[in-house]
């Protein structure tokens, strides 16, 4: 790579920060924030330096490896592809297509090449046994969006740059930099909010980094958010504060929601939530009476027993108080590549419960089963049992509940392949690991998080380094495997057209597709030269075509549509190449009713599924809150899920994998600072150092996820030195939100006791 400064988007988390990377003689010499990035405006977090550490990590795999009796052995790409395709095909032939399981991990969504190649890969595998990190994450948001707005990834995004009140429930953007709200520099944006006279309110079982910079903070008992939110809905109706604003005509079944909320008065839910009735009323009033306000919920309200209802009610609260589609409230974005619209055009709005998993009968969502049932499907004999497994950019042994059971399941497979550049807790079970190029060796466009950002922007980054000829990108690996699998299925030969298609796809790669999508999108260069001339023809076409005709869909999306006339035009890959800091496409803007994808064009405030699940919530209300310690997770700004602990610069210092516990609970259990505690539940137990702090609610304990690098056979020596323990070795995989299928990662009951090393125990 040339010497000089390269501008790029950091792909590590959802924040999409612009980075400026200085390179000299093929080496990175510094990584800074890019002041000219229109979204992040110079912000980066400490993890940005890990871009260099990941790139230079000598333990990052560069060539395929195969497990042998005498350890891991490098192999050539062709040989590896051949072996993997043959094994997968063999399994499919012997046991049927569902005998192959596939798990897709989080980094896939930060990788436009993977995203483009995943579909053909999954089609070639042909199995219904698909899983992903989604069911340990944002699944409730997807179901809610599907039910209310008609599309699984049409999320209302807080307009944080213009709001006067931000109510943040179950999220910690100071550490996470936002999720389903791409918000780099949360701290800076909060400062601006304050400067406008605005306010931040946080509701969380822990006084988080975000809570510490808030104007108002309330502890809440884990898992009780649905009750809090229902009581807020109750208050709105009781005090005649409902005013749906501009979404008014679109909102359907407001009265059903009123009826549903009747028995959930602030008094009724107070004991369960741990929040005073008057505080609940005030929260509802604040939201209703602040014209520019946004209520936002995330992981803490999503991955819990009532994640579905809680997420639905949060969306409802924004609608009932007129915040949806209003500047300063929550709005749908208008990205340069609109995967929502593209998905809808091809009938991919999402679906739920079309089939059910074999062992536990859990519903699929968008073709995936809950990750919590992965081990069941591998371990339970019978037709459709998973015998071969593929992981792509995932570490489910550490990221899914009951990781030990998953360890056992993966170990017993006939064959496993991982597309990953680390030998870690999951991939150590693989027979073959296919390592892709590192992020700086490929181009980058954030297809997904551009759609969830607090401002519309577009940015393309060139690769920084040439990976060399003997390497493969993720998309190349997935397409190559897909092609070979298809060929094997057709007994070694594809029809000539199909063969040419595969070759063309493999030759082109994702960037030309990106170019096409950019050009034909609402800001596309395609719109420019023909505007004016083509408009009447386009309008005529729109009038003539049936409502659901694909051509109409295409025209709707494209820059030729009159609807997008006000948008800046001219985007293409080459125009983005000329603007390495990225292009600002403006703030979030109202887009209703056009943006809805429901059949009747309305917003469904009271979907049947959610109403049906209220019986469960009533049941909770009618039983006194249980005793016992409730376990929740947490995130830290220097860590990212399970895979950045091999960077010495990030993990150095005091262990962050501790058990946070309130002084009252600690003293009751005889725990002192410096002690280790055993945290135990049905799935298993872990031992972690205790951190006694008033920042956590009494009766709640917290352990971060993504740790536990002491499992034998993983190849990350720095991570192993800073092993920590995995919270998912304690969390049960039988606890899910039965409505949605999301894993309960927050609010499971655990036992905690003092742990002494065996030697001391003997003496005692
Ligand atoms: N208890 C508990 N569990 C949780 C959570 C929690 O809050 N609490 N959070 C959940 C959430 S939100 C998520 S998203 C999941 C994440 O869960 P996963 O996606 O399963 O795990 P990650 O830790 O993100 O692991 C990513 C893997 O991808 C590899 N990788 C990184 N970049 C690339 C790449 O470009 N290509 C390829 N092929 N591989 C790559 C890394 O080496 C690593 O092995 O964890 C979930 N698990
Ligand atoms: N530094 C860093 N950044 C990240 C990640 C990371 O691992 N590290 N991961 C990325 C990923 S994959 C994701 S999905 C996002 C997640 O982004 P966030 O959702 O902002 O992240 P969390 O820190 O998990 O926040 C969840 C909050 O919910 C609280 N909580 C737990 N249980 C409950 C409950 O029952 N009710 C309420 N009200 N609150 C509860 C927790 O205390 C915590 O503060 O972050 C992304 N960014
Ligand atoms: S917040 Fe940190 S990790 Fe996330 S994109 Fe920005 S620099 Fe990268
Ligand atoms: Mo996530």
TrEMBL record:
Taxonomy of the source species: Bacteria, Pseudomonadati, Pseudomonadota, Gammaproteobacteria, Pseudomonadales
Keywords: 4Fe-4S, Iron, Iron-sulfur, Metal-binding, Oxidoreductase
MF (Gene Ontology): 4 iron, 4 sulfur cluster binding; metal ion binding; molybdopterin cofactor binding; oxidoreductase activity
Name of the featured protein: Molybdopterin-dependent oxidoreductase
Pfam families for the chain: Molybdop_Fe4S4, Molybdopterin, Molydop_binding
InterPro entries assigned: Asp_de-COase-like_dom_sf, MoPterin_dinucl-bd_dom, Mopterin_OxRdtase, Mopterin_OxRdtase_4Fe-4S_dom, Prok_molybdopt-oxidoreductase
GO CC field: membrane; oxidoreductase complex
A GO biological process held by the record: cellular respiration
Domain 4Fe-4S Mo/W bis-MGD-type: 3-59
Keyword Transmembrane belongs to the record: no
Species of provenance: Marinobacter salinexigens
Domain of life: Bacteria
């Amino acid at each position: 790579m040339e010497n000089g400064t390269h501008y790029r988007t950091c792909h590590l988390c959802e924040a999409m920060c612009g980075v400026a990377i200085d390179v000299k003689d093929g080496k990175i010499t510094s990584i800074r924030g890019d002041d000219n990035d229109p979204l992040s405006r110079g912000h980066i977090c400490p993890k940005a330096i890990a871009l260099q550490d990941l790139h230079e990590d000598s333990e990052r795999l560069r060539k395929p490896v195969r497990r042998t009796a005498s350890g891991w052995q490098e192999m050539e790409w062709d040989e590896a592809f051949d072996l993997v395709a043959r094994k997968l095909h063999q399994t499919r032939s012997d046991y049927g297509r569902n005998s192959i399981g596939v798990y897709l991990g989080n980094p896939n969504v930060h990788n436009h090449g993977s995203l483009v190649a995943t579909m053909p890969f999954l089609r070639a595998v042909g199995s219904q046994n698909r899983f992903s990190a989604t069911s340990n994450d944002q699944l409730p948001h997807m179901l809610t969006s599907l039910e209310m707005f008609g599309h699984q990834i049409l999320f209302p995004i807080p307009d944080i740059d213009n709001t006067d009140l931000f109510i943040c429930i179950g999220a910690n953007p100071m550490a996470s930099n936002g999720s389903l709200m791409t918000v780099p520099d949360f701290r800076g944006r909060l400062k601006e909010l304050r400067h406008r006279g605005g306010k931040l309110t946080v509701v969380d079982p822990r006084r988080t980094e975000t809570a510490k910079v808030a104007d108002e903070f309330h502890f809440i008992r884990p898992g009780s958010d649905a009750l809090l939110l229902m009581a807020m809905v109750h208050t709105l109706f009781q005090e005649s504060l409902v005013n749906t604003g501009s979404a008014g005509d679109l909102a359907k079944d407001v009265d059903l929601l009123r009826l549903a909320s009747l028995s959930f008065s602030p008094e009724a839910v107070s004991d369960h939530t741990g929040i005073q009735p008057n505080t609940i009323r005030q929260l509802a009033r604040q939201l209703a009476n602040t014209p520019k306000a946004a209520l936002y919920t995330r992981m803490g309200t999503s991955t819990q027993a009532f994640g579905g209802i809680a997420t639905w009610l949060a969306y409802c609260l924004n609608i009932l108080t007129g915040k949806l589609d209003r500047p300063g409230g929550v709005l749908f974005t208008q990205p340069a590549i609109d995967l929502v619209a593209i998905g809808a055009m091809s009938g991919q709005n999402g679906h739920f419960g079309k089939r059910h998993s074999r062992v536990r009968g859990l519903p699929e969502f968008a073709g995936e089963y809950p990750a919590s049932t992965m081990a069941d499907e591998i371990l339970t004999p019978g037709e459709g049992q998973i015998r071969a497994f593929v992981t792509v950019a995932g570490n489910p042994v550490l990221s899914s509940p009951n990781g030990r059971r998953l360890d056992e399941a993966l170990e017993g497979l006939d064959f496993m392949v991982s597309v990953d550049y680390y030998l870690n807790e999951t991939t150590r079970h693989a027979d073959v690991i296919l390592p892709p190029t590192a992020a700086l060796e490929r181009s980058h466009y954030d297809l997904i998080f551009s759609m969830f950002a607090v401002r519309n922007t577009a940015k393309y980054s060139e690769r920084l380094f040439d990976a060399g000829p003997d390497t493969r990108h993720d998309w190349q690996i997935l397409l190559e495997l897909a092609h070979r699998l298809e060929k094997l299925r057709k007994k070694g030969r594809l029809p000539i057209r199909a063969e040419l298609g595969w070759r063309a796809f493999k030759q082109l790669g994702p960037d030309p597709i990106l170019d096409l999508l950019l050009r034909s999108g609402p800001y596309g260069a395609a719109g420019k030269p023909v505007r004016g001339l083509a408009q009447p023809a386009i309008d005529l076409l729109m009038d003539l075509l049936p409502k659901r005709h694909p051509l109409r869909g295409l025209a709707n999306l494209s820059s030729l549509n009159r609807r997008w006339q006000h948008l800046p035009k001219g985007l293409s890959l080459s125009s983005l190449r000329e603007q390495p800091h990225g292009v600002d496409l403006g703030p979030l803007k109202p887009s209703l009713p056009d943006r809805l994808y429901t059949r009747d064009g309305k917003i469904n405030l009271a979907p049947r599924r959610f109403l049906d699940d209220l019986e469960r919530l009533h049941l909770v209300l009618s039983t006194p809150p249980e005793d016992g310690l409730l376990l929740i997770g947490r995130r830290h700004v220097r860590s990212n899920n399970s895979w950045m602990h091999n960077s010495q610069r990030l993990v150095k210092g005091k262990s962050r994998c501790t058990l946070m516990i309130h002084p009252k609970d600690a003293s009751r259990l005889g725990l002192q600072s410096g002690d280790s505690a055993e945290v135990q539940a049905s799935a298993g137990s872990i031992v972690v150092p205790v951190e006694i702090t008033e920042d956590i609610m009494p009766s709640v304990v917290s352990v971060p996820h993504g740790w536990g690098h002491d499992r034998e056979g993983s190849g990350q020596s720095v991570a192993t030195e800073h092993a920590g323990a995995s919270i998912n070795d304690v969390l049960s995989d039988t606890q899910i939100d039965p409505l949605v299928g999301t894993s309960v990662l927050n609010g499971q009951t655990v036992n905690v006791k003092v742990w002494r090393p065996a030697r001391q125990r003997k003496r005692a």
